[in-house]
Amino acid sequence: MAEKKERTELGDIRIANEVVGIIAGLAATDVDGVAGMSGGIAGGIAELLGRKNLSKGVKVEVGEEQAAVDLFVVVEYGVRIPEIAYHIQENVKRAIETMTGLEVVEVNVHVQGVHFPSEERAEEYRVK
């Protein structure tokens, strides 16, 4: 994977792949109905402990002028998944194009799970 590189009269501007991943992750989690990004069991435990990886659940491929993004998300129970996925695609595309100048050619949304609010409350009671 190559990072975006631009040459100006003052020098080079480089945007690392990790930056594009962070932008995509933040834009995806801003959509109502998204419970979070899916990073597997280890990622979920790390988040509970307070360590936060902003590009967790995001895979980006960045070329000279274009980017493709794969997002692995967990949605809230009761939302319309196709509608949420479309909003994620639009929000991520807009954020990356606005902030980096890259053309986003695809945003693939992989729904990895459904978050039930009652499970979280039950977990809190079990921990005590």
Report on the structure:
Helices cover 41% and strands 34% of the residues. The protein has 128 residues and is of the alpha+beta class. The chain has one domain (4-127): Alpha-Beta Plaits, CATH 3.30.70.1350. The strands form 2 sheets. Strands 3, 4, 5 and 6 form a 4-stranded mixed β-sheet that branches. Strands 1-2 form a two-stranded antiparallel sheet. Helix 3 links the parallel strand 5 (66-76) and strand 6. Helix 1 (17-29) crosses helix 3. The longest helix is centred in the C-terminal third of the chain and has 20 residues, at 81-100.
| Alpha-beta content class | alpha+beta
State the helix count.
Answer: 4
Shape summary: elongated
**Any idea what the CATH superfamily is called?**
Cation efflux protein, cytoplasmic domain
* Count of the domains: 1
Q: Main β-sheet, in a few words? A: 4 strands, mixed
Rg from alpha-carbon coordinates: 17 Å
Low-confidence runs: 41-51
* Fraction of residues in β-strands: 25-35%
Order of helices and strands: EEHEHEEHEH
Topology-level CATH name: Alpha-Beta Plaits
Helix fraction by DSSP (H/I, runs of at least 4): 40-55%
